[in-house]
Amino acid sequence: MNYENLYSSLSLIQPEITISVFLLLIVVADLIFDKNKALIPFLALAGLIIASVQVILQVTNTGYAFPFSDVYLSRKGMVTVDAFGAFFKLIIIISSFILVYFSYVSDEIKKSEKNLGEYYALIFGMILGMFFLSSASDLILIYVALELLSLSSYVLAGFSKLRTRNSEASLKYLIYGATSSGLMLFGISIFYGLSGTTNLYEINTFLASHQINHLTLSFASILIFAGIGYKISSVPFHFWTPDVYEGAPISITAYLSVASKAAGFALLVRFIKSAFVTSDDSLGYWEILSVFDWHSLLILVSILTMTLGNLTALWQNNIKRMLAYSSIAHAGYMLLGVAVLSNQGLVAVLIYFFFYLFMNLGAFFIVMLIANKTGSEEIDDYNGLGYTSPFLGVALTLFMVALIGLPPTAGFIGKLYLFIALVDAQMITVAIIALLNTVIALYYYIRVLKHMFLTKSTVETQTVSVIRPNIIFIIFMLAPVLIFGVYFGPVVDFAKRCVQILGL
Amino acid sequence: MSLYDIIFYLFALLVLVSAFITVTSKNIVHSAFSLMFTLFGVAGIYVLLGADFLGVVQLLVYVGGILILMIFGVMMTNEITNVDIKTGTTQVVPAIIGVGLFAGALTSMMLRTGWNSQPSENMDTTTYAIGKLLLTEYVLIFELLGMLLLVALIGAASVARKEKE
Amino acid sequence: MYELLYDIFGSEIIAMIIAACMPLFLFILPFALIAVLLERKVSAHMQDRLGPMRVGYHGILQTIADILKLIQKEDIVADTTDKKLFNMAPVLVFAGSYAVFAAIPFSGAFIGSAADVGIFFIIAVSSIVVAGILMAGWASNNKYSLLGAMRSAAQIISYEIPTALVVLSIVMLTGTLSLNTMSIQQTAYFWNWNLFGGAADGFVQLLLLPFTVVAFVIFYISSLAEVNRTPFDIPEAESELVAGYHTEYSGMKFAMFFLAEYANMFAVSAIAVAIFLGGYQSPLGYLGNTIGVEWLIPYEQLFWFTVKGVGLVLVQIWLRWTLPRLRVDQLMTVCWKYLIPYAFVNLIIIGLISLI
C-alpha cells in the first residue's frame, strides 16, 4: 500500500476517525475532570455534530477506502463509502443525538453520573462499530465491527448496577451474542475456504465464475445471516430481545431498537448486494446469482418475524417488553422490503427506517418520562394517564398511531411504500400476510391507549409533569412523524438518491 | 507413515479426547483443564499447518491467558472442600439428533466441496509476512482492533465496578 | 543436531526423540545436581556456615545421595486428592519448563529448534507451568496448596506483562524473534551485546545504552518473579504456606517439581543471556579463530553460554540469601505500578530511538 492510497482512504473515513478521536477524548476528559462530569455529554455532542457534517458530505463524496495493493485483485477496497451507507450513518447519528438527550434526562443514567465517562465512551464505541458495519465490504472488517458494536452494547445493557434485571439483560445479551457471532465467524470461514478471499466483491466475482457446491454455500450464507439476524432481532435469533430491552436502561433500549438495527440492515443489504448481485435490470430488480435463494429465506424469515413479534406482543403487560416485540415485528416488515430484492424495495426500507427512528424513539422517550416519575413500566399503571397528563397522553397516542401505520402519520407512508413495492414485485400473498399483521398490531397498541384514556383514573394515578425542554424535545420528535405523514416528498427523494450502492 | 503424520495424529487424538472430556465431565475443574489440552492440541495443529506464529499466539492467548483466568475464576468462586461443582446433562436425545444432523451436514460439505487450497510446499515462517500485512493492507483492521480492545477494557472496568445507592 | 542424529540412525522418529531428550540428559540433570549443591554451599558460606560436608569431599556427592533418597521414598497420595489431576500436575509443570529449552540456543551448532518465533514461543509455552501449578494446588485438596497455587498464578501472569514488554522492545531493536539470530547479531565483542545497546552505530548505541540496561534490570526482576524465587517466593513461603503448591507431594513427584524449579532457574537465566548478554557469543573473541581450529568454536560457544547462564543463576542464589520476602500487595505494586509503566516508557523510547 502506498501513501497516496492511505491518505485518500483516510479522507474517506473521516466520520469514523472523528468518532474514534472523540472516544479517546471522552476517556481522557473523564480522567481529567474527575469531579465534574457535566462536560462529557457536551463533548459527545460536539463529536456527533462534527461527524454528522462529515457523514452528510459522504452522500456525494463516495469511493473505496483501503484497497488491496495486490495487482491481481480488483481495486475495490475494504470500506465502501457510498450514499447508501451515508443514509444509515445518518440514521445512526440522528438516533445518537437523541440518545444523548435521552441520557441527559434519564434518571437511571443520572444515578450513575460518576461513570458518565464510561457510558459515553462505550456509546462512541458502538457508533464506531455501526459506522464501519454500514460501509464494510470485507468479511474481516464486518466481523471486527460487529464485535466492537456487540461488546459495547453488552456492557451498556448492564450499565445501571442498581437493578438486578440489568445484569441479567447484559448476561443474556452476551450469551446470545457470543453464540451468533461464533456462528457468523464459522460462516465467514467457509466463505473464505471456498473463495480464498474475504472481500465481498472478490467473492461476487468468484461465485459468478466458478462451480460451487450449493449446499456448502447455503450453509455458510445461513450462518452469516444468523449473525446479522441477531443484530436486527429476526426470528429465530430474537430470543434476547425482550429480556434485554426490559432489563437494559431505557435509553440504551431505545438506542438498540433503532441504531443497532439500522447497522444490521445496512450490513444485510450490502452483504447481499455486493456478494450475490451481478447487476440491476432496467426496473431496478437485482439480478441475483442462483447460488443461494435469498428471496425465499428472507420472505420466510420476515413472515415468521413479524407474525411472532406481533402475536407475542399481544400478551405483554410491561410496555418495554411490548415495544421490544413490536420492534421485532417492525424488523419483519423491513425484512420484507429487503426480500423484494429490488431498488424499489430498498427505497421502501430506507423510508420506513427513517420514520421508524422518530416514532420508536419518541414512544420510548415518553415511556421513560413516565417511568422516571412513577417508577413503573407496567401497562396497568398507565390507567387514566391521558387525563392527568394530557400532553404526554396525546403524544404517546400519536407515536402509537404512527407505529401501527395509520394515516395521517409518517408510519403510514412507510408501510404504504413497502406494500407498493411488494405488490409491484407480484408478492401479493406476502403483502396480505403483512397487512393482517398490521391489524394484529392495532390491537396491542390501542390497548395502551385504552388504558390511558378509557380506564378511569384511580387514586394512584400520578400526574407526570413535563418540564419545558422535554416538551420542546417531544414536539421536535412529533414534528417529523406528523409533517412527513403529509409532506413526504423530500424523504422519498432523499431515499431514492441514497439507494445507490457502489460496487456494481 | 512419516513423523509429520504421527505428530498430526497425536495432536488430533489429544484434541478429540480432551474435547470429549471437556463436554462430558461432571467436574467443572476437570472440564476446564481438559479444555486446556484441547486448545494446546489446536495450537499444535496450527503449527503443523505451517502457521507457526498463529500456533504460538493460540498458546499464549488461550492457554496462557483465557484458560488460566477461567480456572482462576472457578477456584475463586467456590469453596475448596465439600462442594462438588457439577454440570449436568439434559435433553440428551434431541441434542444427539441435532448434533448428528449438524455433523452429517458438515461432513458432507467437507468432502464434497472443492475448497480453495494452497500447495503445502511453501511453508515459510509467517511472522514477517503477518507483521507486514497487518501494517499495510489490514492496517484499518489493526487499528480498529486497538479500539475494540480499548472498548473491551473500559467495558470490563465498567462491569467490575460496584455501585452504591 | 537433528540432522546429525538422522544420519546416524536413519530414522526420523528415533533421531527426533533423542534430539528431544538431549537437553535433559546433557544439561538439566547435571545442572540440577550442581545447582542444588551450589545453592546449599553458597548459602552456607554466606551465613558463615559450612553446609553439607559429609558425603564426599566437602559434600560434593550430597545431591546424589538426596536423589537416591527421593527415589526410594514412598509415593504418598492422600485420600481426598483429585487423583487424576494430582498425578498429572508434576508432569505438566516439568513439561512446561522443559519445553522452554527447545528454543534456547546453547551454541551455534546445538539448538533444539531454530524456529523463527523463538522467544515468543518461550513466553507462550511457559504459561503451561502456571496451569500445572494451579492443577497441583487444586488437586492437593489442601488450603495451603491452593493458596500457594493462586498466589503463584497471579504472580506469574502479572509478571509476564513486563517481561513481554521488555522482550518486545529488544525485538524491535533487533528485528527478529529468533534467539539464534539475536545471538548472531551480538557477535564479536561484549560491547555489541544488547545489554550495552546492541550492535548499533556508535552514537545510536550510546543513546540506547541507558534504556537497554533498564530493560535488562526489569527483565531480570520479573524473571525472578516468574520462577518464584526470593524475593518473590510467596507461593511457597515456608512461614505461611508450609511449601505452597507442592506441600502434598512426596517422592518422585516432588522431585519433578524440584527439577522443574531448577530447570526454570536456568531457563530464565539462559533467556536473559540470549537476549541481553550476547547469547553463546564469546565476549573476547574465539580461541578457535585465533589458532585456526574451526571445530572448536561450537564448544567454546557452549562454554560461554554455560558460564554466563550459571553466573546469572549464582546471582539468583545470592539474591535469595540477601533479600527478604515481599508481601503479596507489595509484589503486585512492584509489578503494576512500577515495572509495567517503566517497561512501557522504555518500549516507546527504544522504539523512537531505533527509528533513527
How would you briefly describe this protein structure?
The complex is a heterotrimer of chains A (504), B (165) and C (356). Chain A is mainly alpha-helical and 504 residues long.
Write up this protein.
The complex is a heterotrimer of chains A (about 500), B (about 160) and C (about 350). Chain A has about 500 residues and is mostly helical. Chain A has 21 helices and four strands. Chain A has a domain at about 295-504. Chain A is about 75% helix and about 5% strand. In chain A, the strands form two sheets. In chain A, strands 1-2 form a two-stranded antiparallel ribbon. A two-stranded antiparallel sheet of chain A has the order 3-4. The model of chain A has no long low-confidence stretch (mean pLDDT about 85). With about 160 residues, chain B is mostly helical. Chain B has helices spanning about 5-25, 30-50, 50-75, 90-110, 125-135, 140-160. Chain C has a two-stranded antiparallel sheet with strand order 1-2. Chain C is globular. The model of chain C has no long low-confidence stretch (mean pLDDT about 80). Classes of the chains: A mainly alpha (about 500), B mainly alpha (about 160), C mainly alpha (about 350). The interface between A and B is large, with 51 and 30 residues.
Give the secondary structure arrangement, pairings included.
The complex is a heterotrimer of chains A (about 500), B (about 160) and C (about 350).
Chain A (H helix, E strand, L loop, with lengths): L2 H10 L1 H19 L6 H20 L4 E5 L9 E5 L1 H23 L1 H5 L4 H20 L3 H19 L6 H32 L4 H10 L4 H18 L8 H8 L2 H27 E4 L5 E3 L5 H20 L5 H21 L3 H32 L10 H4 L1 H15 L5 H15 L3 H27 L13 H19 L2 H9 L7
Antiparallel strand pairs in A: 1-2, 3-4
Helix pairs in contact in A: 2-3, 2-6, 3-4, 4-6, 4-12, 4-15, 6-7, 6-12, 7-8, 7-12, 8-10, 8-11, 9-12, 10-12, 11-12, 11-14, 12-14, 12-15, 13-14, 13-19, 14-15, 14-18, 14-19, 15-17, 15-18, 15-20, 15-21, 17-19, 17-20, 18-20
Chain B lengths: L2 H22 L3 H21 L3 H26 L14 H21 L14 H9 L3 H22 L5
Chain C lengths: L1 H8 L2 H35 L15 H11 L10 H17 L5 E3 L2 E2 L6 H8 L1 H13 L3 H32 L4 H7 L16 H25 L11 H4 L9 H26 L10 H5 L4 H25 L7 H28 L1
Antiparallel strand pairs in C: 1-2
Helix pairs in contact in C: 1-2, 2-11, 2-13, 3-11, 4-6, 4-11, 6-7, 7-9, 7-14, 9-11, 9-14, 11-13
